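One such given next:
>
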Amino acid sequence: MRCIKRWRLRSQTLELGRRTLVMGVVNVTPDSFSDGGFFLDAEKAIAHAIDLIEEGADIVDLGAESTRPGSRAGGADALVRAEDEQARLLPVLEGILKARPAAVVSVDTYKAQTARAALEAGAQIVNDVSGFVWDPAIANVCAEFHAGVVLSHTRGRPDEWREQGELEPDALLETVRDGLAASVSVAERAGISLDSIVLDPGYGFGKRFGENYTLLARQAELLALNRPLLAGLSRKSFLGHTLAPLFAGKAAPEDARENASLAAMTAAILRGASIVRVHAVRPAVEAARIADAILEHTRSAG
């Protein structure tokens, strides 16, 4: 299963694998699927980020453009320009670091221009959901700043996801594995060190409902890429779909998916994830402690 590794960030190093790290999400957007509009105001977003840190978040992940299914993110006609993204994001980033100078802040962006501005402002990590595909220039920016990076697998763009057919399990794993390997190659060619890279299977990003469960069940196979894994399962729509029989046949709403999120998150940890990306930090911290204890005793028993 997971091994202990060092994740080299811009100005510090995090240990991965001994215990699960929790990344808390702050969406500075009007339209994110789970909490869009809640933290569009900079002061509210800063306060929420500080709350997440106090609840035990090891990393705060800031996003200023929604990549929910159906959005036009990643295309030439994306509704959120880099300038608008930065206007939302930078005041929050600066406010967090002013209040908590030691905070580790990740920026969820695929735009090179926004990544540069965020790294200049003190971000440690760039979390690119496209895995350096939608804006290839971002790889050079991350290399220049020696940033930590999260490279996700995304199958197509958000406005294409609902039309994609479902892959057979082996084909799905091959697609995700090859896509992540290609992203790593792009990163290395740009000069990014392997020990700065974490990989994200991209749950919900271009995967049909059942494909996410296949990917979760076989997630440990991705450890063959020799990079730590981050799993972002929190409040995903496939969880709500599975809960539909408990909600009069309709998908469970986002605010009713927290227990399901914890169950999926725990499964991801037991299948090799070193980092989990969540909306509700305190319950995730507690669940991760239990999963980590299981892994520790599994190693001891072996």
